[in-house]
Design brief:
This protein starts with 12 loop residues before the first strand and ends with a strand. The protein has one domain. It is an all-beta fold. It has no helices and nine strands. A hairpin with an 8-residue loop joins strand 4 and strand 5. The chain is about 0% helix and about 45% strand.
Length: about 140
């Protein structure tokens, strides 16, 4: 009987991650969110805003979320997408922070990270529950 690995199955896979609440003073740290288990096509990265939501800082003092491709050795710095939360973001709502026009091919071992960037005074980020959806290529 042949063994079928979960990665051999067609269709999308979803891995989940959690990020702690972060105050603006601690922005600048990158948070690794995903390690490609095999050659894959990234479909999207999304997350659910935690309790409290975001006010958007009136469009002046807000936070940007960057999804970064760190490569397979962790030294990469390719910003795949920057999502600005410059308007209110309700708690427990789903937001896509990276959604490529065509699925993004990555090598086995590729690492993705999230970086928060303050605009003007910025805005503290609540806890985040996120996910990366991908499929084998």
């Amino acid at each position: 009987m042949a063994y079928i690995d979960v990665h051999d199955q067609p269709g999308p896979h979803r891995d989940f991650f959690d990020l702690p609440a972060v105050i603006v003073a601690n922005f600048g740290d990158e948070y690794p969110i995903w390690h490609a288990p095999f050659k894959a096509k990234i479909r999207f990265v999304g997350f659910v805003i935690g309790e409290g939501g975001l006010t958007g800082g009136g469009g002046v003092n807000y936070t940007q979320v960057q999804t970064i491709d760190k490569g397979t050795d962790g030294t990469g710095a390719t910003v795949l997408e920057t999502k600005s939360f410059n308007a209110a973001a309700s708690e427990f709502e789903n937001y896509l922070v990276y959604e490529p026009a065509t699925y993004d091919d990555v090598a086995s071992g590729t690492v993705l990270s999230i970086l928060y960037v303050a605009q003007a005074a910025g805005e503290d980020m609540p806890r985040i529950h996120g996910y990366v959806e991908y499929e084998g290529r």
